[in-house]
Design a protein that fits this description.
The protein is an alpha/beta fold and 594 residues long. Helix content is 48%, strand content 20%. Helix 5 links the parallel strand 4 and strand 5. Helix 14 runs parallel beside helix 16. The structure holds ligand C2E and calcium ion (2 copies). One calcium ion binds next to strand 18.
Length: 594
C-alpha cells in the first residue's frame, strides 16, 4: 500500500470508466513471470500504454517467490507452462507463504485443457487469461483485480472509525521507510501521540460521544500536518499517509525528512496548538490535550521496535511532566525507565518473596473511646531499601496493573487476620481495606471479594471497602452496579478522602454507601482554620442526613478530637490514638480493650 492516489481511486473509478482513461492504479507494482522474454516485453509495453509504471519481471520461475517477497508487488501475472518450476507450483508456494498468501495472481495460459484451469482456480488463482492475451481484456481484468485488492487493503489497513491508516499500516510503512532510509543520509522521526485523559471522557459520556470526539480529534491532527513538513528525500516516497491511528486514543506520525528534528518539532507544536480550541460534540463542549513523544532514526534506534518503544517512553515522560506537551527521546529517559523497570520487577516478585506487610491502624468510636475497627495499610519490606510506604509503590503498581494482585493479597490477608483475632477471642471489630481505581474497574473484583470472604469465613459485615470519592464519581452508572453487588454480599462501603472530590449530595444518595471519611487535609487545621472547621461541620451534617457514619482521619491532637466530638463526628483515626502498626502490636491494643 502506498500513496494517496490509492485512497482517491474510488472517486476516479467512478468518473472514468472509458477504456481510454489511464489507470487509477499507476503506482501499483505489477509482477510478470514468464519463461518467454518476448511475452514479458509485449505485456510490459502494453501496460505502460495503459499508464502502469512499476514492473518486476523474471523469466526464471524458481526465483519468482523470493522476488515477490522482496518487491511486494500488488498483482502477479503468472505463466502456467514453464520449464523447471511450473506456474501451478509457483502459485502453490505463494498461497503457502505467510507474507504472500493474499497476493492476487492472474494466470496466463495457452492451455485449452479445462482440467488445468480448474486446478489453478482450486489453488487460489484470482483470475485466468487465455494466451495470446487480448490487450483490452487484460486491461479490464487487471483493473478489476486491483480494485478488489484496493478494497481489501482498505479493510486490512485502515481504521473504520476515523478512516486513518491503522497500526498495521503504520508498522509496515515504517519498516519500508526505514529500510529505504538506512542506505541514504536521511533521518526519520516517529511521533507518538496520546490523547490525555480520553478514557475519562469516554467513560463519563459514553462511547458514542467518545467516538465522535476521536473522529474530530483525528481530523484536527491531520490538519496539523503539512506537506512542507516533509522535505522530500530522494528515494523515500510514502509521505501521503503520515498519520495513523495506532491504538484507541493513540496516533503516530512518520516524518521522513533530511531535517527530521525541526520537522517533527514543528508538527508536534502545531498539534498541541491545534487541540487547544474546544470540541463541540453532541451538545457538549469538550477539551482535549495530547502528550507527544518523538524518536529519531537512526539516532534513537535503527529498527522499528526500538524506535517505537523509545517514542513511547518519551511520550510517557511528556505525560508525567504534566501532559499537553512534547518530549524528544533522550538516553537519560531510558535510564529512568530502566530504574523504574527494575523496581517494577522487584515489586512483581514482592508477593512471592513475602515482602509485603499489612499494618493496622485503629478506628475509634469517639463517644465510647473503644476500638471498633482497623484500617489495613500496605507496606513493602524491601531487602535493601527497608520499609517502603504505599505512596512510594502504589502509583507504580497502579500504572503497571500490579495493583490487582497486590490488592487481592491485601484483601485476603486482612480478612484472614481479622478472623484470626476473632477466633482468638478478641473483641470483634471491622476491617477496612483500601481499593484502588484499577481494582474497582475490573468486573472480577466482586469475585475477588467473595473469594476472600469465603476463604476466611469472616462475617461479611465486618469487611469495609474504602474507595476514594474520585473513584466512586468517575463512572456513576458502573459504580452503582458494583456497589450494589458488594452490598448484596453483606460488605460495607466507605468513601475515602471525602471532601477532595466533586460529589454532590444528590449523587451520594444514589449509591449504597455506609461511611464518609473526612480527608486528613481538613482535619489538620481544625479548630483554628474557620473554613476547614466549617467544611468538617458540613460533612458531618451531610453524612448524618444521609444516615451515614462519619469518620475523621489524621487526628493528631486532643483539640481536634474535642472539636470533632462537639460536632457529633462518630469515629476517629489518627496518630493521637496509634500509628499504623504490625499485626502483633495491634493485637496487643485490642487485648487492652477488654
Ligand atoms: P489513606 O487511605 O488516606 O490512608 C491513611 C493514611 O494516613 C495512611 O498513610 C496513614 O498512615 C496516614 N495517617 C493516619 N493517621 C495519621 C495522622 O494522624 N497523621 C498523619 N500525618 N497521617 C496519618 P499510609 O499508610 O502511608 O498510606 C497512604 C495511602 O496509600 C493510603 O491513604 C491509601 O490511599 C494507600 N494505601 C495504603 N494501603 C493500601 C492498599 O492496601 N491498597 C491500596 N489500593 N491503597 C493503599
Ligand atoms: Ca483509606
Ligand atoms: Ca486519606
Amino acid at each position: 500500500m502506498t500513496g494517496r492516489d490509492r485512497l482517491d481511486t474510488p472517486i476516479m473509478l467512478a468518473s472514468s470508466g472509458s477504456s481510454s482513461a489511464r489507470t487509477p492504479f499507476a503506482s501499483s507494482t505489477i509482477m510478470i513471470v514468464d519463461d518467454e522474454p518476448t511475452t514479458i516485453e509485449i505485456l510490459e509495453m502494453f501496460l505502460q500504454g495503459e499508464g502502469y509504471d512499476h514492473f518486476v519481471t523474471t523469466t526464471e520461475s524458481p526465483k519468482a517467490v523470493a522476488l515477490a517477497r522482496q518487491k511486494r508487488p500488488d498483482v502477479l501475472l503468472l505463466d502456467l507452462m514453464m520449464p523447471e518450476v511450473g506456474g501451478l507450483d509457483v502459485l502453490r508456494a505463494i498461497r503457502n507463504d505467510e507474507e504472500l498468501r493474499h497476493l492476487p495472481v492472474i494466470i496466463l495460459t495457452s492451455s485449452t485443457e479445462p482440467e488445468t484451469k480448474l486446478q489453478a482456480l482450486e489453488l487460489g488463482a484470482t483470475d485466468l487469461l487465455a494466451k495470446p492475451v487480448d490487450p483490452s481484456e487484460l486491461a479490464l481484468r487487471l483493473k478489476n483485480t486491483l480494485t478488489a485488492k484496493f478494497y481489501q487493503d482498505r479493510l486490512a489497513y485502515y481504521d473504520r472509525l476515523t478512516g486513518l491508516p491503522n497500526r498495521r499500516f503504520f508498522m509496515e510503512h515504517l519498516e519500508r521507510t526505514l529500510r529505504r532510509a538506512a542506505g541514504g543520509a536521511t533521518e526519520c522521526a516517529v511521533l507518538y501521540i496520546n490523547l490525555d485523559r480520553f478514557k475519562q471522557i469516554n467513560d463519563a459520556l459514553g462511547y458514542k460521544v467518545g467516538d465522535a470526539l476521536l473522529c474530530a480529534a483525528a481530523e484536527r491532527l491531520a490538519r496539523s500536518i503539512r506537506p512542507t513538513d516533509f522535505i522530500a528525500a530522494p528515494g523515500i516516497p510514502g509521505i501521503d499517509d503520515p498519520l495513523s491511528r495506532v491504538g484507541g486514543d493513540e496516533f503516530s506520525v512518520l516524518i521522513p525528512s533530511p531535517s527530521a528534528v525541526e520537522g517533527s518539532e514543528r508538527v508536534a507544536r502545531r498539534i498541541v496548538a491545534g487541540l487547544a480550541e474546544s470540541f463541540h460534540v453532541d451538545g457538549h463542549e469538550l477539551f482535549l490535550t495530547a502528550s507527544i513523544g518523538i524518536a529519531l532514526f537512526p539516532a534513537d534506534g535503527d529498527d522499528i521496535e526500538t524506535l517505537l518503544a523509545n517514542a513511547n517512553i518519551a511520550m510517557s515522560h511528556a505525560k508525567k511532566r504534566g501532559r499537553n506537551d512534547l518530549q524528544f527521546y533522550d538516553r537519560s529517559l531510558n535510564s529512568a525507565s530502566i530504574q523504574r523497570l527494575s523496581l517494577e520487577n522487584q515489586l512483581r516478585r514482592a508477593i512471592d518473596h513475602k515482602e509485603l506487610r499489612l499494618y493496622y491502624q485503629p478506628k475509634v468510636d469517639i463517644e465510647t473511646d473503644r476500638i471498633i475497627g482497623a484500617e489495613a495499610l500496605m507496606r513493602w519490606e524491601h531487602p535493601e531499601l527497608g520499609l517502603v510506604g504505599p505512596d512510594q509503590f502504589i502509583p507504580l503498581a497502579e500504572e503497571t496493573g500490579l495493583i490487582t494482585s497486590l490488592g487481592e493479597w491485601a484483601l485476603r490477608t486482612a480478612c484472614q487476620q481479622n478472623r484470626a483475632w476473632q477466633t482468638a477471642g478478641l473483641p470483634p471489630i471491622s476491617i477496612a481495606v483500601n481499593v484502588s481505581a484499577k481494582q474497582f474497574e475490573n468486573e472480577r473484583f466482586v469475585e475477588t471479594i467473595r473469594g476472600a470472604l469465603e476463604e476466611s469465613q469472616m462475617d461479611p459485615t465486618h469487611l469495609v471497602l474504602e474507595l476514594t470519592e474520585s473513584v466512586i464519581m468517575e463512572n456513576p452508572t458502573k459504580t452503582a452496579k458494583m456497589l450494589y453487588a458488594i452490598k448484596e454480599m453483606g460488605a460495607r462501603v466507605s468513601v475515602d478522602d471525602f471532601g477532595t472530590g466533586y460529589s454532590s449530595l444528590s449523587s451520594l444518595k444514589r449509591f449504597p454507601i455506609d461511611e464518609l471519611k473526612i480527608d486528613r487535609s481538613f482535619v489538620q487545621n481544625i479548630p483554628q482554620d474557620e473554613d476547614d472547621a466549617a467544611i468538617v461541620n458540613a460533612i458531618v451534617l451531610i453524612g448524618h442526613t444521609l444516615g451515614l457514619t462519619v469518620v475523621a482521619e489524621g487526628v493528631e491532637t486532643l483539640d481536634q478530637l474535642a472539636f470533632l466530638s462537639r460536632r457529633g463526628c462518630d469515629t476517629f483515626q489518627g496518630f493521637l490514638r496509634s500509628r499504623p502498626v504490625p499485626a502483633e502490636d495491634f493485637q496487643r491494643l485490642l487485648r487492652e480493650e477488654r
